[in-house]
C-alpha cells in the first residue's frame, strides 16, 4: 500500500514522447508518482478502474475517446478522482468544456514544466488551477452574463438564510431573531438547521466563523 503522502497519478496522452516528458516532471517530486500511463481516453478509463489513482492528467485530443469524454465518464464512475486537463490548446471553449466535464484544472503543455506540479498539488487540495488566460476568460464570461441579465451562479444559501446567519453570528437568540424578522421561533430553528446542514457546520461558533469569512460580520 502506498504512503498516505504520495499522490498516485494516471497520465493519459497519445504521444509517448509527451508522456515521457510529463512523467519526468512528475517523478522528480517525492510526493507525486505515476502509477499508470494511457495512450487514449478509453484506456485511461480502464486503467483508472484498475489502479484507482488519486489524480488523472488527461490530454484533450486523444483517439477513441477524447480527454473531455474520458473526464465526463471518470467523474461519473469515480467522483473522488481529481482531474487535470493537459493541452496545447489555449482555447476558451475547451477550457469551459473541461470545467463542465469535471476537471479542476487546465494546464497548457507549453508551460507544463512551470505549472504542472503546482496544478497537481492544488487539485489535491480541492482548489482549481487555471492559467492566467483562463482566469481572464472566466471573468469575461461572468461579466458578459451579468450584463445580459443571465443567471449568475447560485448562492449557497438563500437571502432569508443569510439574514438569519448574520443575526445568529451577532449573538441573537432564536426568540430575538423571530421578533426581528416577524417569523416564528420554529421557522428560525428550521432555517438554522438548514444552514448547518448546507454549509456542513456543527454549531453557532462555526456559523459565526463562516459569517466572518464571507464578510457578513466583522471579527
Automatic annotation (TrEMBL):
Residues 8-124 form the Response regulatory domain. Gene3D superfamilies: 3.40.50.2300. One of its GO terms (biological process) is phosphorelay signal transduction system. The modification 4-aspartylphosphate is found at residue 59. SMART domains: HTH_LUXR (SM00421), REC (SM00448). Residues 150-215 form the HTH luxR-type domain. Keywords: DNA-binding, Phosphoprotein, Transcription, Transcription regulation. GO terms for molecular function: DNA binding. It comes from Nonomuraea jiangxiensis. It holds the Pfam family Response_reg. This is DNA-binding response regulator, NarL/FixJ family, contains REC and HTH domains.
